[in-house]
Amino acid sequence: xxxxxxxxxxxxxxxxxxxxxxxxxxxxxxxxxxxxxxxxxxxxxxxxxxxxxxxxxxxxxxxxxxxxxxxxxxxxxxxxxxxxxxxxxxxxxxxxxxxxxxxxxxxxxxxxxxxxxxxxxxxxxxxxxxxxxxxxxxxxxxxxxxxxxxxxxxxxxxxxxxxxxxxxxxxxxxxxxxxxxxxxxxxxxxxxxxxxxxxxxxxxxxxxxxxxxxxxxxxxxxxxxxxxxxxxxxxxxxxxx
Length: 241
Fold this sequence. Notes:
By secondary structure, the protein is an alpha+beta fold. It has helices spanning about 1-10, 40-55, 85-95, 95-110, 130-140, 145-155, 165-175, 180-185, 190-205, 225-240; strands at about 30-35, 65-70, 210-215, 220.
């Protein structure tokens, strides 16, 4: 319970955390940063870039392990290649198409600010469960961050169907996974339990939106915050080991 309270408290006050203790050093310490995220979440890709910018400035970055955790914004979403993301968003939010278009334009401009190019006009409405299973397979082989990067790019930039097993096999091959293993995993139910476990942990931590970053199960940052917030939290969490 103390851990749970600490995480929620850190999330609420993340932008005001101080780094007064960051002068302490621990050259042997390792820190784990868990990131709850969904492939179809535009803020998650933006948050990834902002976190990476902070990590690049963190002197102990080689001692940080990043673990991606599964989250589904819309677990009941059906993959539908005939429907535009704008239509899907309008339906799920109860918006007009004009409102959906305005919201997407805002996100596109936000993405540009971190060097990302979003093409919502060709993005494919796709359930993300199998993509999350694929991410866990990539984690097993030590290439989860590469998998997440390619999944985001495939969805937001390249207009690929991230629920299509052939697309996931292609991405797996690109990042060095055995295509036969990827095909076998996707054909069955491998790593489904791991995905469900991540989602259940999110419920326990009362995570209702992503991205959500947890630092050593002590501190948390919710949303695609400014890189300065991530850097301050990295420093605070590392000094508190």
